[in-house]
Amino acid sequence: MNRDNCNLKFDLIAHFIKGQIAISPELPLTTIIEVINEKFQFTISYKKAWLTRTKAIAMVFGDWDESYRRLPRYMVALQAFNLGTVVMWDMILKLQSTSIGTKMYMNDVFWAFKPATEGFKYSSSDMH
């Protein structure tokens, strides 16, 4: 009777817990299950708790796709306001199965602030 009500949708639960997620994005799934049980008298499944936490994180912090779209602009701002900052992108070229051709995907991005790179100029042999 009280097991995982199908009317208790991800959006409703996510809106309910997003305040807690803003404080603690790694809110344990068991805590989410307990909170929902106390509030709605239903025990949601572990999977529903995980999907709900994922949705609430996206509500609070934005989704992964949007974060990746913003990353290049963030890196440009980082370099503009922290002169000497080094940013290196590692991109992967992937062939598309459609007629689109190839597409570039980000594999990694590395950045270092000027004080960190300046510190590498001096090796241990120079210090003696």
Give the distance, in angstroms, between the N- and C-terminal Cα atoms. 75 Å
Number of strands: 2
Radius of gyration: 22 Å
Strand order of the largest sheet: 1-2
Number of helices: 5
Shape: extended
What composes the largest sheet? Answer: 2 strands, antiparallel
Order of helices and strands: HHHHEEH
Structural class, from secondary structure content?
alpha+beta
Percentage of β-strand residues? 15-25%
Range of helix content: 40-55%
Regions with little confidence, pLDDT below 50 for 5+ residues: none
Overall average residue pLDDT = 85
Kindly report the oligomeric state of this protein: single chain
Number of domains: 2
Give a quick rundown of the structure.
The chain is of the alpha+beta class. It contains five helices and two strands. The N and C termini lie far apart (75 Å).
Structure description:
The chain has helices spanning 10-23, 29-40, 46-61, 64-81, 114-119; strands spanning 86-95, 102-112. By secondary structure, the protein is an alpha+beta fold. The protein folds into 2 domains: 10-61; 64-119, no CATH class. Strands 1-2 form a two-stranded antiparallel sheet. The mean pLDDT is 85.
